[in-house]
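In this supplementary section we document a worked example of the pipeline. Step one takes a protein sequence of length 140 as its only input; no multiple sequence alignment statistics are reported here. Step two produces a three-dimensional model, which step three serialises into structure tokens for compact storage. The input and output of this example are shown verbatim.
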Amino acid sequence: MIQYRDLIGVKFTNRGRSMEEGFDCYGLVQEIYRRYGMTIPDYTADFDDLEKVNALITSKTAITSNWRRIGKGEELPVPCLMAIRFGTPSGIVNHTGCYIGNGQFIHIRSNIGVCVDRIDSPAWRLVIEGFYEYVGGSDD
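The serialised model returned by step three reads:
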């Protein structure tokens, strides 16, 4: 079983990619996949660059060709990328997290750092835009 306890509370850093400097939301997703023995393509965007963050999941770029959207009713693989929206209209993604099993996901918040929440909680269930399985591609 993959351990996450050492990540809890690690600080948010815009474009962060390590425990020492801190993570942004996609940097944390990369770390989770690394712990599962997978290297996923890097993707950087300032946390407030809504257009670029949203493009990670919604556009047909090389990076998105590496991910397959999980259909309703399909079992969620572990790990699994999550597309989330904070205070944006439906369909606009500005945050990512990683499903880690048992109804839980790990993500990072700028004010509290890395944390674990439930996908079915009232705070999150209506803002999760989708789940994505890494299928690899030309950039791995």
